[in-house]
Amino acid sequence: MDYSTSSHQVVESNDSAMPVKTIQARHLLSINDLSVDEIMLILETAEAMKEIGSRAIKKVPTLRGKTIVNLFFESSTRTRTSFEIAEKRLSADTLNISTVGSSVTKGETLIDTARNLEAMAPDMIVLRHPSSGACHQLARVCRARIVNAGDGMHEHPTQALLDAFTILAHHGCIKGLKVAIIGDLLHSRVARSNLLLLKLLGAEVCLCGPPTLIPPSVSDFGVRSTTSIEDAVTDADVIMMLRIQKERMRGHFVSSLREYFNVFGLTSARVERAKSNVIIMHPGPINRGVEIASEVADGTRSVMLEQVSNGVAVRMAVLYLLAGSGETI
Amino acid sequence: MPVVMDADRMARALTRISHEITERNRISDKLVLVGIRTRGAPIAQRIAKELQNILGEPVPTGALDITLYRDDLMRQPVGPQPLVRRTEIPFSIDDKRILLVDDVLYTGRTTRAALDALIDFGRPRDIQLIVLIDRGHRELPIKADYVGKNFPTSTNQSIQVHLSEVDGLDEVLLEEGIPV
Predict the structure, then answer these.
(1) Does some domain include residue A9?
(2) Would the CB atoms of B80 and A21 count as touching at under 8 Å?
(3) Is the pLDDT of residue A3 over 60?
(4) What is the ipTM of this complex?
(5) CA–CA dist B172, B162 (Å, integer)
C-alpha cells in the first residue's frame, strides 16, 4: 500500500500494512538498555538485513547522508570490519579512527576527542575502549548516538545479539536451552552481555572456568557456575567458548596455557557429552590448542564463521533501528 | 465502512488481469511475478496460480520489501522506524519481464521505491505494474499497466484492502475522515 510522506502520518493512520516499531533507548550501551520485545525486533530486522548480503548489489540507500564514526581504542579486526561493512551496506558515510595515528597518542582525553568529533556533527559513534564504562561517559557528553563495540571488561552488546541470532537460526528458540559459557569469565565482556541476554530470553546458563577466572559476583546473576568442564557441557545445546585474554591478565590466573587446555580446553571427547545437535560458538579470535582444539574449531558443530556473517546483519539492524530511536532531541 | 470490492469481484478482477497478462505477453517471454510486501505478495501468489492454469507452467514468484528504499525514512532527526521484512526473490531478474504487484496505487512513492529496489537486483527486460485498486492522487509520473478497479478517492479517504491470507477475508473497504 502507498504510504504518506511523513513517518508521523504513518503512525497516526493506523495503517496495518506498515507497522512501525522502535527501540526506546537512544544509545546501545548495554543489553540492560533493551527489553525482550526490542531484542526480538532487532533479531527480526536482522533476518531481513541478512538477505541484503546475498544480493549481487549488497547495498540499500537507507542511511544515506548519515555519518558514522568508528572510534576504536583497542585493536580489532572482526568487530571494526563488521561495523564498517554494515554501515556501508546501509549507505552511511563512515570513517575509522583508531588510537594509532590519532591525537589520543598526543595525550588528549576521551571526552576531548569526543567533543572535537562531535563538532563535526556525526550521527553515530561506534566506540571500542579498554576502560569499562567509557561508552556511558561518552553518551553523557555527545548528541550522537553511541553504540558500544566493547568497553573494557564490561559489555559487548552487539556480540551477544549476533550470538542470539545464531542460536535462533539453529535451535529455533532460546527459552529453555542449556547454554555453557566456558573460559575466562572474569575478563570477558562477551560473557557478561551474553549472560544478560540469555537470561532475559529464558535460557539455562551454566558458567565454567578456573576459580581464579570466575568473578565473585557471579551468584548475583542467578546462574550456575562450575569448575568442571565435563559437568558444564553435559547435555548442552550450546557451548560458548571464551578466549583467554592474555592482554588483560595482570597477575597469575592460570598456571600454564598447556595445563589450561588439559583442564578447560574443548576437545572432541568433551563435545561428545553434549547433545548431538549442540552448536559450538566462539566470539573470536580463537587460540587454537588453548581454549579449543583445532578439530573442534573446524568441526561440523562449530558455527564460528556463521557468527561472523550474522554479525554484519545484526549490526545493520542495530544501526537502522537506533537511527530512529529514542526521544526527540 | 462502504465495501468497494467483495471477495467475488476481487477473484474476477484477478482472473481478468491474468488473462490480460497472457494477451499482452508471449508464452516464450520470461515472465516473473514480484509482490510488494505486505499485501502485494499474496496477490502475486494468486495471479501466479491463475497464470499457471492458463499457461500450463509455473511463473517464478517473489516478494519485495521496500522499507529500506522509502523516501520518507530519516526525514526527521528521530522517529520510529518502519518494520523491515524479508525480501525473497530466489531467482535472477536479468532479462526477465517483471510483473510488479501491489494492492493500492496512490501517490506512486511505493512503486518508485520498488523500482529502485528491483534495479539493485539486476537488469530486467521490462517492468509492468499490476494493482488491485488505483485510487488516484499520483505524486510521481507512474502509471499501472493492469488495474483491478479504478476508484477515484479524495485525500481524506483511505482504502483498506483485506486478503484472506493476511486478514482472514477478501474485501476492499473505503474509510472516510482520515486527517490530511
Answers:
(1) no
(2) yes
(3) no
(4) 0.85
(5) 6
